[in-house]
Design a protein that fits this description.
Keywords: Signal. The protein is mainly β. The chain folds into 3 domains: about 270 residues, Methylamine Dehydrogenase, Chain H; about 80 residues; about 60 residues, no CATH class. It has 4 helices and 32 strands. Strands 1, 10, 11, 12, 13 and 14 form a 6-stranded antiparallel β-sheet that branches. Strands 2, 3, 4 and 5 form a 4-stranded antiparallel β-sheet that branches. A 4-stranded antiparallel β-sheet has the order 6-7-8-9, with no helix packed on it. β20 and β21 form a beta hairpin. The longest helix has 14 residues. It is globular, with a radius of gyration of 22 Å. Bound molecules: zinc ion.
Length: about 425
């Protein structure tokens, strides 16, 4: 988990923001199935209804994986891992180019093209301007698959996007007709927004203008509905004892809402409250388009249907001692639900099995199992190797100093090898951040 958090933090730093958004997925949960108080929205109901499933956009596909790095404080450079030819390169064919200035086609000013997602075989999309102080408007930008031919598809005034690309809560979505990206209106961290962009016309709107609550946090999508978390929690008054305060749980209620972007309808989906203990007892997460619910005390894991609210039990035999602390779902691979450092569960049979470990990666003084960067069905892109090196940095006073860090390398591995702990990697190059 440490590695995951450090990645997210690094990305946030790269994006230039100061505070990580609260992670609602980690926060607990319980079964109060379907207390549907459907609430008709007025302003968003006008959209046509393609009713296609919402599809998350990722930082890569079976052909390429896109990364970028800071060149200077203001410039970023793209690097692309070619997953077919197994090399990582700067997407630039200018002869003799040092790839360090805006004359390089792979170099962008920050805020112009912060992170690209694969829209289709020919097109990338970037939701730019993640809360940089020098700009207020945000742009949706399309590019060719080689990171070139940048064109602005839409401009959304006084807004910023959340588009880090780490999980289902930080990626944009499409239904084939519209693009969707969560973010904020009126400044970073201010008013929660879900922007819908019509690529044909460039028109955009904030679908949360008619939301039933303020401060909603985006969690992901289930079929053709978005899920948002409303948090009404009270934290205990500080006692002065930092350790004791940190361990004292908040009280109150978390509500997970389903939002249909086509009809504008809001529906309370799940509620977790300290009144019945479910706030602490339950964990929920959206993974690969499914809503999983874990009862830490009962050792049960279920998947909840967004339409009927019905919870289908996967197992009630999961060892409860594994469900404490920083327990979290990692993903689904070949019908198995994977957890960080805990046994995996088969989604159909409910079988619980220790996943044989791959060799540990060592990063920043601690060991971790490979993380999944891209899940391509039969193949995964993971961090497969780290090499220590000493990096020289020029301090603000011009004095150089060194830090010991690691180069991280990405590799492809079959899901079968991954599940069996067989480190049969095909390296594709260095991970760039
Ligand atoms: Zn170049």
């Amino acid at each position: 988990m440490k590695r995951v958090f450090s990645l997210a933090l690094a990305a946030l730093l790269l994006a230039g923001c100061t505070a990580a958004p609260a992670d609602g997925n980690e926060r607990s949960t319980a079964v109060t199935a379907e207390t549907s108080t459907a609430q008709e929205a007025e302003t968003t109901a006008a959209a046509p209804s393609p009713a296609a499933a919402l599809r998350p956009l990722w930082l890569g596909d079976e052909k390429q994986y896109y990364m970028n790095e800071m060149v200077t404080g203001e410039l970023i450079r793209y690097q692309v891992a070619d997953l077919i030819n197994h090399v990582t390169e700067v997407p630039c064919d200018v002869e003799g180019c040092a790839h360090d200035s805006e004359s390089c086609p792979a170099v962008f000013r920050r805020g112009e093209c912060d992170r690209v997602f694969v829209l289709d075989d020919d097109t990338l999309v970037a939701f730019t301007n993640n809360q940089f102080s020098e700009t207020e408007d945000s742009q949706v930008v399309l590019l060719d698959r080689n990171c070139q031919n940048r064109r602005v598809a839409a401009t959304i005034p006084n807004s910023s996007f959340l588009s880090l690309g780490y999980d289902v809560a930080s990626v944009p979505y499409t239904d084939g007709q519209y693009l969707y990206c969560s973010g904020w209106q009126d400044g970073y961290g201010n008013q929660a927004a879900m922007f819908r962009v019509d690529l044909e016309t460039g028109e955009s709107s904030n679908l949360l203008e008619s939301a039933p609550a303020q401060g909603l946090q985006f969690l992901g999508a289930l079929d053709n509905q978005f899920v948002f978390s409303e948090s009404d929690l009270t934290y205990p008054e500080p006692t002065g004892d930092l350790m004791a305060d940190a361990l004292t749980a908040p009280t109150g209620t978390i509500t997970h809402w389903l939002f249909d972007p086509y009809t504008g309808e809001w529906k309370a989906f799940q509620t977790y409250t300290s009144d019945d203990g479910s706030l602490d007892r339950m964990y929920s997460a959206i993974v690969d388009g499914q809503y999983y619910q874990v009862d830490r005390e009962a050792g049960s894991i279920s998947v909840v249907d967004p339409v009927t609210g019905e919870a289908k039990l996967i197992t009630d035999q999961y060892p409860t001692d594994q469900l404490q602390g920083s327990f979290a779902i990692q993903g689904t691979v070949q019908g198995w639900l994977l957890f960080y450092e805990s046994p995996m569960v088969h989604l159909e049979t409910g079988e619980i099995r220790e996943k044989p470990n791959l060799p540990d990666n060592y990063w920043n003084g601690s060991a971790h199992q490979p993380n999944i960067y891209l899940n391509l069905g039969d193949i995964l892109l993971v961090d497969c190797r780290y090499e220590p090196y000493t990096r020289t940095i020029i301090g603000t006073d011009g004095t150089p100093y060194t830090v010991d860090v690691e180069h991280e390398y990405l590799g492809l591995i079959s899901t079968e090898d991954f599940l069996n702990g067989v480190p049969n990697y095909t390296e594709v190059g260095e991970y760039i951040i």
